[in-house]
Amino acid sequence: MHGAPFPVVDADAHILEGQDLFDHYLPPAFRHRAPRLVTDERGGRRMLYEGRLLPPFPVGEQASWGMPEPPAARLALMDAEGIDAMVLFPSKATFFPAGADAGLALALVRAYNDYLADFCRAAPQRLLGVALVALHDVEAAIAEARRAVALGLRAVMVRPNPLRGRRLDDPAYFPFYAAIEELGVPLIVHETTGVLPTAGADRYGVDRPDQYAFTHLISHPFEQMLAVLALIGGGVLERFPRLRVGFFEAGCGWLPYWLWRMDEHFEHPALRPQFAGLALRPSEYFRRQCFATCEPEEVTVPAAVAALGSDKILLASDLPHYDSRRGALYAFWAEAPLPEPVKRRLLGENAIAFYGLDAGPLRELAAARAARP
Question: What CATH number does the domain containing 287 carry?
Fold first, then answer.
């Protein structure tokens, strides 16, 4: 892959936010309430947010919080991995939209979006940022989405969790979806692990296991299943047919089963009236408007490609998080049991289409990479 003359786009990687996010981007009136790193009674490093301790960081990420990441270091990582463009999601900032205080949540996501936009300006064809929004106040979320896209960010991210009792299919969010559709950027549903339930947001399974490994197993796929159910079964994609939606960082193997199960329920005459007046089967809405990421090592990718289509899945490294693996995208190109045209789609072509990227500069980057010894 390092010498392959086609664009390689990592559809879901993560920025490691530094303390300067708060020191330089958060308004002074909120800085005393910014999340901060503390040491708990067992000596573990944890984040304190709105008076609540998040679970301990996984091994390998204990030292990452607060250390500024230079864009040059990220570009060097991409060059070493043979990645032409990388789409950047938050790390610790993923919990900002889940807070109880609407004013603080909005200030934090605005600061993060400014921080990310500045980071990406170092190489705007290669570093592609995804904006955060807080859905407490829908009009404020719309305004922030428009502002972030004007800054150059390429998509808008929401969490899948219910917020203040509202699921993603709540009619209160319809003006927000209309605005994202009008902006022409993707809406991405992305979960995280380690956020305790607050007065603002709740997360599936947090009331059961308390081990990080177990909550990580549960949170991503289960919350994405519920998000697919809300956005498709709840009629959002029927109402907004030009809205592109991505369901990220849960793998893709769960989707064929979940869409089959949704179709089965939809097709039962006694249950169809509960599906918000859908004109199509749930799986047809997914194929029309939705995408998902896969992990390079995921053994279910061929089955998902067969069920969903080779144009619906994007490859994601999750770099530089503790559970990512260096060289994984190259290994996928070399070893995945898929035809080469399909692997090219997953490695870049699908991400170019999903994010609406200009393919020309990326092809030039790929050609220059392929020409290097």
Answer: 3.20.20.140
